[in-house]
Every structure is written in C-alpha cells, then in structure tokens.
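May I ask for a sample protein chain and its fold as tokens?
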Amino acid sequence: MRRTPRDTAESSRKITRRGLMLGAAQVAFAGTLAMRMRYMQVEQADEFRLLAEENRINIHLIPPSRGRIFDRNGRVIAENENTYRITMRREDAGDIDDVIRRLSVLVELDPAEVKRAIEEMRTSPPFLQVTVADRVSWESISRVAVNAPALPGVTPEVGLSRVYPQHENFAHVVGYVGPVSERDLARYEDPEPVLRIPRFQIGKVGIEAKFEEQLRGKAGAKRVEVNAVGRVMRELDRREGETGADMQLTVDSDLQDYIKARLGEESASAVVIDVENGDVLAIASAPSYDPNKFVRGISVADYNVLRENNHRPLASKTVQDAYPPGSTFKLVTALAGLEAGVIGPDDTVYCPGHMEVGSRRFHCWKRSGHGRVNLENSLRDSCDVFYYDLALKVGIEKIADMGRRFGLGTAPDVPMSAVTDGLIPDKDWKRRERGAEWRIGDTVNASIGQGYVLTSPLQQAVMVARVATGRAIEPRLVRSIGGVETPSRGGGTLDIDPTHLKYIRKGMYAVMNSRRGTAYRSRIALDHMLMAGKTGTSQVLNRVVNSKEVPWEHRDHALFVNFAPYDAPRIAVSVVVEHGGGGSSTAAPIARDITLQALFGGTPPLDAYPSSDRGRIETQQQEIERMRRERAAAAAAGSRA
C-alpha cells in the first residue's frame, strides 16, 4: 500500500522530534560525564594520583588518656607514662615470618611475645594491628621507622601505659590494669571499638575495674594515608578523644605507707576511718605486691612466688577475708543486753573460770576466773563467762540484730574487689544453710565472737566508729570523680539509747587506761589523746593452743579495735594480725602506733608513749623510717627500670 504525502510528512516530524530528544539526552549525559571527569581529574587529582600508586586511606583509633588517681592530699597513686611499641598488620605484612625475621635484625624481640603475636595475627581479622614488641626503647623505634619500606605492615607507635608510683602501698585498693582479653570482651554485649586496640589496657581488679568506664575516657580517631607497604604518608584529619575522669580517694599516702612499714613481715591488715564523715584514711593489707608487674606482664616465676607465699600477698585481707571477731564482738553482745533491758551497768555475774551449759563446760580465758564482775569490768578484763550468761538471757536473735545495726553481716559499700559479707548467724541461717537446728551452745559461742560469727577488718572499723559516734557511719573510699565530690557518709543517728553507748565507751576506756585493762600497756600517755579500745583473740583450732608450741598457721588470730581521742572521737581503727597470738600483746601495740600516727599526721613525740616504752619506741621509729626510705629507694629504682 502506497503512503500518502501527508503520512510521509507526519512521520518525518515524529522522527525529528525523537531525534532531538535523544540528542538532548546524549548531550546531557556527556556533559555530566565531562563535569565528573573534570572534578576527578582536576579537583581530586592529588588524591587519585596517590591512589593510583596503590595508596589508601585508613582510619585509626586514638586511645584515650586514662584518668589519674590521687590520694586525699593530691599525691599521685596511679598515672600514665609514654611507652613505645611495635605493631604489625597481617593484611599489609604478607609473609609474616619473613617480616619478623627482618624486624628481629633491627630490634631484640622476645621469642615468647613473638610466638603470641603470630598466633594472634593468624586468628584475628587481617586488618587488626597486633603488638609484636612492647615497651621498647626510643632507639629501637627510630631504627624501625627508618627501615619502614623494608618492613611492610610494621608500625612503630607511641602509647600510654599505666604506672603506680607508690608500688605496693595501694595494690589491694586501686588494683591494676592489663591488656584486654577475650574474657574481658565477653562481659560486653557490644564492645566499644577502642577495646580492640592492640594491648589496650582496662581495669582488672580494685578501683581500676570498678570505675573502668569513668577512668577509660572516649577514644579519638585520625584519618591517615598509607602507601602500598603500609607506611603512613600523611595525616588527613584528627579528632581528639576525651580524657578519662581523674579520681581522688580518701586515703592518706603517708599514713598508708607508715602502716605498711609498721605491719612489717606480719600477715596482717589495718583500717583507719575518719568518724566525722566515714572517710577511709588508710586500708592496708600485708604483705602486698607490686601492681606494675601485672601491667607489664608478670612472669610465671614472679607469680608463683606470690601464689605460694603462705602470707597470701594477693589477698585483700581488709575486705576479702573474714575472721571470728573474738572478744571485740562483746561490744555487740553487751549492747544487745542493754537494749533488751536484761542487764544494767551495775548488774554483776560471778565468774569461776567456766560455765556449765547442758552437758558442756564453756571456759573463760582466765581459768581461775574473774570473780564478780559488772559490765564495765567485763569489758576491761574481757571476761567470757559474763557474756555466756548474758547471751543466754538475751538470745541469738537480738544479738544478731544488734550486729547488723553495727554494719556486720553486710558487705561494706566500697569499690574494692571480692568484698565479703562476713556472717552474723541466727536460727534461720543455720536451718537454711546447714540444715540443722540452732543449739544453745551456738549462742554461747557467738556471744564472744566465736562459732559461726565472721567479720572483716573493715567491718570491725565501721562497728567501732558507730560505737564512738552513735551514728550509722558508712565507709567512703572515693572522695571525688572528675572534680565532683561524693556525698559524706557520716550517717544519721542510730536507734540506740545514747546512755547505753556511753556505758560501752566507758568499758572500752577502762580496757586502755585502767591498770587492770587488757590493753593497758598499749595506752596513749597524753591526756588529750587518750584512746578507748577492745582486744580480741580468735581461735583457729577448736582448742586452746600455746603459740610457741604450734605451727604458725595454727596460732590464734590477734584483733584490736579502738577510737580516739576518747572525749572527742576523730578516728576509728581496726587491726587484725593473722596467727598473731593475743590481741593485747600483738594487735593492740600496732593499733596504738597507727592511732598516734594518724592523730599527729606524722611521727608522734615520744612523750605520747608510756615512759617505760620510750626507748623501745624510739628505736622502732628509727627502724620504720629506715624501712620506708629503703622501700622508697627500691620503688624509684623499679620505676627507672
């Protein structure tokens, strides 16, 4: 069929219109392509020139500076120091063994560390940096930097590492940091990227662990350009991280250092509390260890020395260990009797040296007996029979309730590791935990702090602080975080008759200042600083032992609690000497010396001691000062090393 001229003209118009539209589209596309090519070839020429040479841009996290920790006077307990390390990235290194061989020619490498690094690189993502050598010298870092082209994937870095300038003094309080482990990462549902930084340090125990997030800070980041062998060509931009919050503790470094020296070679602990606000002025456990060794990676030999020591230097005895409180618990039993109204200050009990309860005979520590004693004399002489009799009248439930009101049986709220609850037993506890009924003999034993009763040295210090003030004092260990002070923990008034507390304090005064008192030899000789205290001796075996005739680990524990000054209490002190024998002969002299050191803020004058002791005390003070100087010198030498 032949097309008409009209159809031919119409078809030509349509083809022309479509051609114009197609041409316009082609021109637009070509123009866009030309503009993009111009942008890439002119404006981004430098960047793509480098990329053409197989360069690439990496984003590196910048570890934050960890917050520092200070004592109450601003002395540094934990700080950071610059360290140099060498890291390697597997995806850049290629042949790991060959690169390490070349690196070992330049830098002395620890075979064990190299083996660990190789295993870590082969099990980690290829882009992750792994530390091959840590704490290397500046000279080593310089050699690696100069030879970077021959060491693909190897990066010399400057980092920060934790250091504890006071070494063992605060190991049990502050704890230590260490490299992030898989176990650490497992604690987080979504670990922060900063935790993946090679050898990044986080708190493992103590305050370092309890306040990890506040101390850690926030990571920064930098964008760097690296060439084909991983060498950094330039830094494109940087965002600084946030430094962790500084912390100030309530402890006094000088007092803590004195206590460590005074405890010497004993397996012991001591706590000092400011009774005004609950501040823990000192909390020392002996022997101790140097936390710097754990930060740097403690050797198997060094760790075994600590682990096998029967004085248990790794244990934080002040909060982790619980001991039968012995006769120091008589303060609680006496208050329970007074509050229950079953005894008054002038009521007496006859002590023949023992008491028959059912078919069993319970002895007093003084086998010949104390005769007739009242409340004050029972504390002064530490008569056991008085408290056996009182416990039978008042019952275990009221004794246990009074113990809890004085902070026993509940873990103190302090940011330390493995804080124990201790144990204040009652009938329900024994039925629940032991599947047995409470016996009357259990009550008799509990009345003098034996049997099932267990308390920590910190709990003992809280107990005596509450006796001294009549307030529900709680221990405060952290004074401020990031410059913001934490609330005082002086506590409100205890729901206990103030007159009853006065009777107890009067008995504690007699313990120290009456010639018949069990701690008279450890008194303070200055009238304006007289102390009030209570001795305690707790059995390790279920029988009376002679400390000179049994092995060290079978000897009784020695305990002592006190507050001072008597008329206007400022501090409360608790001392426990493991297997130390008698509280009056071993723990009381230590507590008296610590009390004077705290009250004077330094070495007390000799006239603060009884005249008969001054020669011995002067020699002791000189010896302690010598020990402190030697420890300071050793610490300084260790820091330089």
